Amino acid sequence: xxxxxxxxxxxxxxxxxxxxxxxxxxxxxxxxxxxxxxxxxxxxxxxxxxxxxxxxxxxxxxxxxxxxxxxxxxxxxxxxxxxxxxxxxxxxxxxxxxxxxxxxxxxxxxxxxxxxxxxxxxxxxxxxxxxxxxxxxxxxxxxxxxxxxxxxxxxxxxxxxxxxxxxxxxxxxxxxxxxxxxxxxxxxxxxxxxxxxxxxxxxxxxxxxxxxxxxxxxxxxxxxxxxxxxxxxxxxxxxxxxxxxxxxxxxxxxxxxxxxxxxxxxxxxxxxxxxxxxxxxxxxxxxxxxxxxxxxxxxxxxxxxxxxxxxxxxxxxxxxxxxxxxxxxxxxxxxxxxxxxxxxxxxxxxxxxxxxxxxxxxxxxxxxxxxxxxxxxxxxxxxxxxxxxxxxxxxxxxxxxxxxxxxxxxxxxxxxxxxxxxxxxxxxxxxxxxxxxxx
Length: 439
Description:
- The chain is built from 13 helices and 11 strands.
- By secondary structure, the chain is of the alpha+beta class.
- The two termini are about 25 Å apart.
- A 5-stranded mixed beta barrel has the order 4-5-6-11-8. A two-stranded parallel ribbon has the order 1-7.
C-alpha cells in the first residue's frame, strides 16, 4: 500500500543531396584521373562497395549522401571513412571537415576534431573559413588560440558586416567559451535577430538566438554547465576503413578511431553515449530531442551538497527572500566509475520536496509517495543517490528552463529534464541533504 505524504499548496520552486534521386539531371564529373562508372547509381554503388580505392575520389555530393546515410544507420566508422573521401574529393570545401569534426565530437574525440579542423585552414578559402574557425573555437582549450581565432573572425565580420552566418557563429563562439563574453554574444544575437528574423516563419537559428537571449536576460545561472570530466575506462575502439593512404592534395589528417559502444541498452532505452552522440549530430538530433526519451545509467554525482541550509526544510515553509539555491540535479553515466555523463534535472522542483520525501521514506519506506507540488509528478523513491542505476524519462536538449530558478545549459552533453525516475539497482548509501543525520 502506498503512503501518500501530505503536500501543502504553497512553497518555493526553485541547439543541431547527391545520390538520393535517380533523375536525368547532368552528372557532375569527377577529375579525369579518376575512373568511375557513368551513371549516378553505379557511381554510388561503387563508392559504397569500395571506400578505400580510387572510387573515394568520386563526386562530393554523392559522398555526402553516402556518409550521412551511414551516420543515420549507425555505421560511424564507415561514415568517417566516407567523410575522409569527401575531403579528398574537394579539399578546399569546408563542409567535409566540419561534418567529420561533428562526427568525432559526437564520440567525444574533441582532440582529433581539433586537428582535423586546424588541418583544413590552409586549404579552405578565408571567405568560407568562418564556420571552421567557430567550430574549432568551441573545442580549443588554449585561451590564446581562442583569442586569435576570435580576432580573425571579428576582422572578417568588420569587412563583411552583413554576413548573417558569421554573426550567428561568432555569437555562439563567445557563448560557449570560458570565460563567457556574454555582452558581445548578446550584441551579436540582437544584430542577427534584427537583420535575419523579421519574417513570420522563424528559422531554427532565429529560434535559438531568441531563446539564448531570453536566457541571458533572465540571469541564466549556469549557461555553460558541463558534466564532470571523463574518468572512466577507455572504451574499445577499432580503426575505421580509411582513405588516408590514398595519395591526394590534402593535409595530413590524424588517424581516426571511433568507439563501438552501443546507442541503446537491451531494454530499448538509450545509453548515455547514445543520447549524447545523437544530440551532437545534426543527422540524428531529432531522434532524441523531438519527443521524450528514456536514458538508463548509473548516477555518478549529485549536487545535493550545494543545497544551502536556508532551503533544506519541510514543504510548506517558504525559503527566505535572499536564499539562493541551485535546482536539484544528478549526473548519469553508462559506467559507475565515471565517463561521459548527462545532467538530469526537473525531477524535483526544490530542496523542500526532497527533504520531505526523505523523511517520508524514513517512516513508510518503499510505500512513501510525494507529488511535487509545482511539477505535478511523483518524486522518485528512493531519492536518486550516487551508485544507483536508474532509468530517467523526460525531454532532452541543451537547455533546462523548467524551474523559476536554476536555468542552465550544457552545449556539449545536454540536459535531461526528467518527469520520471525508475530504480534499477539501489545505491550503497541513501541520499541525504546537508544537515540531515546519517540513516
